[in-house]
Amino acid sequence: MRIASFNVESLFDRPKAMNLGSWAAGKPILNKQAELNGLLGEGVYTKAFKTRMVQLLRDLGLANSDEGHSFARLRQNRGHLLKRAGGKIIITAHGRNDWIGWVELKTEPVDEVATENTARVINDVGADIQAVVEADNRVALREFSDAMLKKVGGAPFEHVMLIDGNDLRGIDVGILTRTGYELTSIASHVEDTDAVGRIFSRDCPAYTIRTPGGAEIVVLVNHLKSKGFGSQAANNALRLRQATRVKAIYDGLRKGGHANVVVCGDFNDVPTAVTLQPLLNGTDLKDVSAHPTFVDGGHQGTFGACSLSEKFDYILLSPALFALVTGGGVFRRGAWGKTGKRWPIYPSMTKEVQAASDHCAVFVDLSL
């Protein structure tokens, strides 16, 4: 059987600020939207907070209307945050309890060729259990499986599951399985908290799958906090909290008698990072890339140009599963790799926007 993990970077719709051709172009917008939503979540809006909110609203093009310009819109679902008069923005709410709303990023359709190439990657990898990161929602994932896989000559997955997470951009983690690989239970950790607050930026769902041979596997799919925007110190702190919680979930599964456990997804950091040590050195999980049969094609990373400093995508296995590994590797044909010339790519990828993803798919074969 084959298990794979792939960051699909949205299937049909993607925030406009994340579709500008480079992280550098969209990063200021993402930073400001994240900062503003953080301020909007405060219990009391101080004078300093209100001053900063007004500046951020202007920077995001929301000075004249909630709908804004190109990249963001203000949702005021209950109560009111502000009023606009004479070209001025006045924050009328005194704190979080006075209104319900947020600033969300506007989306636009993903390039159709890119979506087809995403389908090609998943079809060519040929996994029995396919974990996905940054999927739009369950309906979109189901439609992608039914329509796009057929379009590239593949077959739809039998089971498709995704639970909405905590990310306001609507980029979530999910799983698809082939016939005979039955989803027998699902446990969401979307509301897990610690002393600081809510832990997961998306979720860490635990999918229990029964294989055709009757074996049971639990797959934890993750998308840990990114480096793409916001304070790096804050990002690292949250990623460490997330890795620590994933470790606790894994330890609980093992103590509960689950021998076959997979932890996979986009961890957004390198193997040597302090943020990932609870998982990589604090458990008995083993990275499939450490197996002698694993093939990386001469590139140790999985994101961007795929240098070692860009290894973000992982499949970690419990000892019982690692002992059954017969092969594995990184599938790169759908990734542009900064230049489009670092490895063989699909003929349909004539420019970067047509790439399946900035990430490569990772897979492992097991004799189970």
Q: What about the largest sheet?
A: 7 strands, mixed
Global geometry: globular
Overall SS class: alpha+beta
CATH topology call of the largest domain: Deoxyribonuclease I, Chain A
Residue ranges: pLDDT <50 for 5 or more in a row? none
Radius of gyration: 21 Å
Instruction: Quickly name the level 1 CATH class of the largest domain.
Output: Alpha Beta
Question: Would you tell me the overall average pLDDT?
Answer: 92
Which strands sit side by side, in order, in the main sheet? 9-10-8-1-19-18-16
State the total count of DSSP E strands.
19
In what range is the share of β-strand residues?
25-35%
CATH superfamily of the largest domain: Endonuclease/exonuclease/phosphatase
In DSSP terms (H or I, runs of 4 or more residues), the helix count works out at: 7
Strand and helix order: EEHHEEEEEHEHEEEEEHEHEEEHEE
Number of domains: 2
In whole angstroms, the N-to-C terminal distance is 6 Å
Helix percent band = 10-25%
